[in-house]
Fold this protein.
Amino acid sequence: MKDVAARAGVALKTVSRVLNDEPGVAAETARRVREAVEELGFRRNEGARILRRGQTASIGLILEDIGDPFYSALARSIEDIAHRNGSLLFTGSSDEDPARERALTLALCSRRVDGLVIAPASDDHTYLLPDIRAGLAVVFVDRPPGRIEADVVLADNVGGARNGVAHLIRQGHRRIGFIGDAPRIFTATQRAAGYRLAMAEAGLVPDDGWISMEQPTAVGVRLALTRMLGGPQPVTALFCGNNRVTVLALRALAALNLHPAIAGFDDFELADLLGVTVVAQDTGNMGRIAAELLYRRLAGEKGRPQRIVMPTTLIARGSADS
Amino acid sequence: MKDVAARAGVALKTVSRVLNDEPGVAAETARRVREAVEELGFRRNEGARILRRGQTASIGLILEDIGDPFYSALARSIEDIAHRNGSLLFTGSSDEDPARERALTLALCSRRVDGLVIAPASDDHTYLLPDIRAGLAVVFVDRPPGRIEADVVLADNVGGARNGVAHLIRQGHRRIGFIGDAPRIFTATQRAAGYRLAMAEAGLVPDDGWISMEQPTAVGVRLALTRMLGGPQPVTALFCGNNRVTVLALRALAALNLHPAIAGFDDFELADLLGVTVVAQDTGNMGRIAAELLYRRLAGEKGRPQRIVMPTTLIARGSADS
DNA sequence: TTGAAAGCGCTAACAT
DNA sequence: ATGTTAGCGCTTTCAA
């Protein structure tokens, strides 16, 4: 910028004025400055500007895996809101590792992002307190924060799973299996609770062997399925706890050539063509609402932390029938 | 940091030394400093550090849509390499809009990202020249840069499409349709060329009506399909130009209850269960290689711009047969 | 309408 | 082993 000022024969401050469209610069002077900018290929150092002004116009997004369709859809809707608010977006994948989540988050705090949207893997976010006190806005999404009070946008996990399982029950099923995820994952536990609730409401008592709460792998899901579908009293229907489980289960069932009724939490691409009944969450809206809440907080909206629960939709496509 | 220094009763520089693990600080002094850091909830302002040191330890990724599975897989592999190199990652979606791509890119340049990975929508990247001259590293991925020389990592689009179409021909098909994307998109044109090549090599002359080069929409694909599959000489097989087209075509065919042979460029989740034959690109490796090249350039590797072409893999799953 | 000087929070270079 | 000074590139404040 110094070079630009020299070239245009004006003071530093005048260049700054032109670049920021501040009033009080003669048209001719402004023209000369712009010309110099062009000739030098000058690009303002945003970092220095930020240092001086104290607002970074950037937000961070921490999630489990940007490569997962559920999270990438979330990321996209958040990016749109960030863009609309003139912010750039940092993204980071925690891989479900609390230490990596924390490291990533603190790195973003050091960069002084204005706000953070976190789909947490950790259950303790007290480490964010100094930054929040210093003005950082944080909204949690998909899962609640741990040991701090903060805004959070969640799906109706219990209600959604309950609806899905109730649908299977309406189709006449009595022995229904649930394949979830590791119990430390909030959504997994909530959806399992929804399963139990639906069963209880129908007067059904699930056998212990009908419930699997493990981190989903191809091998693990196949084992769980052979266990549930073998023996003298096999389950006749399955409810899967998330999109990854559903996909793994569909593959395993195809390989085993078994065809129980099946439904799952989360919609996924081509579920329609495969005719798979799902409980869909509105991922796009969830991200949008979380990001909009973040920007309202940044704009100064006060009030106690909100807990927004998004409804889910049962989409019956046939796989749950019979 | 000033506050920390005051609290620990040392000079600013000593705090800086402790925070950077620089040698020459007594253990006891360091302890006092760390204590003060803890008590004050101090977090170093990375922006100021960057301003002083001139390296941002961040890179940017510009792609069409972070919500698209193809690109989100790419993003994930790039994020991993960035993480391994101690960088944070900015992501931005251009929505196939050259102006948005440019705006996003320049915003990142102003933030002084160390490097940029771009899956370009624009065909003119001369606007990057000043930044490249100033030391910015840029690697293009999926599509080549426009009007500048730069490193690029591409899939073997011509060869892949050719292999896919040749596979259909080997199954006995003679009238084969191609549904691509807008011709201004590099990959679309390349894959169409691969289609023509395979046809020509088999001595087949494609009818004009067998080729559709439009931005894929549900309606557009359905129309193209009814045109190709209607009439007295319908095509008996289809080759789709990318994952989105393939999915739209599968949906349209199911709705129309038509079952021509089909194959497509790009693998996609559940293609295995649907038995769809595809030409797969190794997205993860493509991102990894692009990002690694970027970091080699940042580490000072000289030499003329590279053009790396990644092989594709034909995965026959049955949908191309008969 | 324009400019000079101070300072954002940090680190490099040079004392002590 | 520790401190002092200058300055990264910009904006803010105040003056002309």
User: Anything to note?
Assistant: The first helix of chain B runs from residue 2 to 8. The two ends of chain B are 73 Å apart (CA to CA). Residues 1-2, 12-13, 16, 20, 44-53 of chain B lie near DNA strand C (CB under 10 Å from a C1').
